[in-house]
Amino acid sequence: MTFVVTENCIKCKYMDCVEVCPVDCFYEGDNMLVINPDECIDCGVCEPECPAEAIKPDSEPDLENWLKLNAEYSAVWPNITIKRDAPADAKTFDGVAGKLEQYFSANPGQGD
Ligand code: SF4
Ligand code: SF4
């Protein structure tokens, strides 16, 4: 089991999660983060830290595609352990539907 970052992170990217992870397994894309499922020790500490409620245990239903996306992009995006400011318009995108189709970017973020 692992935790995964899901759709509501896209364009919210608050980054409260990265500083609490004991094994530094968050990776940064252009407008969202992902968790490396092979490195996550399933401690659950990050889940309540996410203001967008985007982090879920993969034991929840219908997260297979998100698990795949987390695994795929954590292999290519840079590691992130230090919190930076959220995008200025993060609040505007909190809870918006269809973010994966409309806004997902495969580009890497800047990392630490
Ligand atoms: S705290 Fe939540 S919204 Fe912010 S980067 Fe982490 S997973 Fe994404
Ligand atoms: S569950 Fe624990 S190990 Fe996994 S990403 Fe969250 S804080 Fe890191």
From TrEMBL:
Keywords: 3Fe-4S, 4Fe-4S, Electron transport, Iron, Iron-sulfur, Metal-binding, Repeat, Transport. The keyword Chaperone does not apply. Residues 1-30, 31-60 form the 4Fe-4S ferredoxin-type domain. It comes from the Bacteria. Its cofactor is [3Fe-4S] cluster; [4Fe-4S] cluster. SUPFAM superfamilies: 4Fe-4S ferredoxins (SSF54862). Transmembrane segments: none annotated. One of its GO terms (molecular function) is metal ion binding. Ferredoxins are iron-sulfur proteins that transfer electrons in a wide variety of metabolic reactions. PANTHER family: FERREDOXIN, OXIDOREDUCTASE. NCBIfam families: FdxA_Protbact. This is Ferredoxin. The lineage of its organism: Bacteria, Pseudomonadati, Pseudomonadota, Alphaproteobacteria, Hyphomicrobiales.
